[in-house]
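Ticket reopened. Same input as before:
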Amino acid sequence: MALFPEPFGTLLRLQDALETFRTSGWMQSSPSGSGSYPPLNVFRKGSDLVLIAEVPGINKSDLDLQVKGRTIRLAGTKTVKFAENASVHRRERLAGRFDRSVTLPVEIDPDGVKAECRDGILALFLPQAERDKARSISIG
Amino acid sequence: MSDRQELAVRDKQELATKEEKTAPGRYFIPDTDIFETDEFLAVILEMPGVQKSNVEVALENDVLRVDGKLNLSDYEGMEPVYTEYNIGHYTRSFAISSKIDRDNISAQLDNGVLTLTLPKAKEALPRRIALQ
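Engineering reply: fixed in the latest deploy. New output:
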């Protein structure tokens, strides 16, 4: 079932759905929780999981991603640069280093994990482990 | 220097509407740095998820207005299971006090960060004042 069938008029619905799942207990059985940088959203797409984080201004080369079992580690450094002799009017962008681990409550296939970083969005595609997939059982 | 610091999570700021939008939904205020050199004013906005073709920049009556639209089709077929932040289009405007050479404004989008360089008009370039 497509939750967001057409591109227009769906923003509000998508936002409402994202808001609803902020109190989801999906991670509760794992040691991971919220509060660490980068903030992330987890989606289900078919039988796979997609983990998305906003990482504006971070180069691919400054990101270090690791998978071990069902734990994902996102580490890196974000730098904010000003021109030489600049006089600063406003400073809101944050800089610094980060290192976050997330243990997912489902089995994933660590060899099949794919990462993509585009327009300041990091997306990790996590295929569900074959042995964790639902199997239909025929009654003999 | 600041690179040694742990990067903290800050909630995205939602736009408190001054004017109504035609499409329903929340808008977010991009985190912005603004600095000035003798020659130009630079405005740097963080708009993760916005593609080059969906950015609009306008300078009118000394108000600089930036709009960035998200491409929602990226989220097609995705069902949230756990979320920590919300998404939306970005919008922000600034009143620019210095005289700007409008014909030479340049914009660059890298990794979701929009950098606007607004060169100062000739008459607005600073003059050093000699002490008598």
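Residues 51 and 70 of chain B are 7 Å apart (CA to CA). The longest strand of chain B covers residues 50-60. Please confirm and we'll close it.
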